[in-house]
Please model this.
Amino acid sequence: MLSFFKQFKFFWIFFLILSLVIVSIFYSILKPKKVLPIYQPSRVNSEMVDSTIQHVSKYHTIADFKLINQNGETVTQNNYKNKIYVADFFFTTCQTICPIMTDHMVLIQSKIAKDDDVMLLSHSVTPEIDSVAQLKRYALEKGVNDAKWNLVTGDKKQIYNLARKSYLAVKTDGTGDAYDMIHTENFMLIDKKRQIRGYYDGTKPEDIERLLEDIATLKKED
Model:
């Protein structure tokens, strides 16, 4: 019996390899394709959502906007047309979570440097402080690539409405100022249809890894 198996040793090795290949092919075919959720106001923490849209359960998209970037250029939704992008809210004088978030945005920028489909967008929550000149200084200090990443300032009411009614990403602070806000550590992943496809803690390396993986997943939807 032993001599029989020795005689057909190469056949059994070939058969084993072929079987593994077939099993791998069937697994890849049958494995469910990962699909990112589409976030709606009704399924996001209500603390982050304006009360006027907390009931909305479908068709939510990022609203049109018109802001000014670190180079004094007007930035609108058209700059992000047919783009996947990562958005956040920050301010240049923040000494707590913002430096970590910005460092992680720099990391993401390095990973998407040659990917024309992906961009970044950071909104200042203190536009009265973050002038164009201030944003430019910050951009140069952090190594911002102007072709990939806009740091934007502008009308505070518009930025507030974007944060609360579009990105569903920031808290009010309860001071009574309707356009005051507490920004969070959230990074938002936006698809080419201007839909929110993911939320990530911009201070956590593991969330940044997940974000990069989700960008790759989102690109496969095209």
